[in-house]
Design brief:
By secondary structure, this protein is α+β, with helices and mostly antiparallel strands. About 35% of the residues lie in helices and about 25% in strands. The strands form two sheets. A seven-stranded antiparallel beta sheet has the order 3-4-5-2-1-7-6, with helices on both faces. Helix 2 runs antiparallel to helix 7 (about 190-205).
Amino acid sequence: MFLFCLGLHFGLSWAQSIISPAARKKEAIAVYTAQRPKQRVLGGIALARPYGWFFKVSGPDEVVGKQKQAFETFLKSLKLGTRPGEEPTWTLPEGWKQLDGNDTRFATIQMGSTDEPLDLTVTLLGMPEIGESAYLLSNINRWRAELGLEPIGESELPKETKRLKAGSREVVLVDLSAYLDGVPNQENLYTRALDDIEAMARMRGEPQEMPEIKYTLPKGWKETPPVAPQIHRFVTGDPDDPVVISISSAGGGRVDNIDRRSLLR
């Protein structure tokens, strides 16, 4: 038995040494995220100038996810008035209960069972004289920031939202999730885990697996040997004073890298 355990120990150590960094990274991320709660936000935005109506529920992913279909049904039942600021009406799914609002919200709706209580908040906010897309974007990015997610651009709105018909109007559905330490405005732990694991791999001297990038060189461009941390390097223009174009790999989020590049200007 001793010899068997000894052989198993060295066998596992040998196997781990030949497993690719990418495979170990994937396994480590799975363990890392399994030990931390995944938070989810379901939101709905209905525009009725000069106001916007906001419907939002947040909580553990496994609890909020069960209410997504009922939440969509609720949003589709909305009826917005024609006069500015006119109160909307809706139909509550079975088991939901509406409570009075307060100074900051129009109403609070209790969703689901008492075993897994969730509060759906209904809020009325003024709509400044900006385009509807810009207004939606600013509020969706506000919700994303609460989960530690990076902001998106206007061109990403169709991919990150869903349009629901509510009578003669549309309601924009937003579905967001992220791994958190349970505290809003923390960095997305999935992304942070990935960066930490890559940093540890570099410290151990492990070779980094670079993504395969396919491209077609424009006329006049020439590929030259890259210089770390570049993956690919190209030159064009005057041979005595060439323009250098490079593709590099770096950790951190999109905002972090934009800020870093702005320092070079």
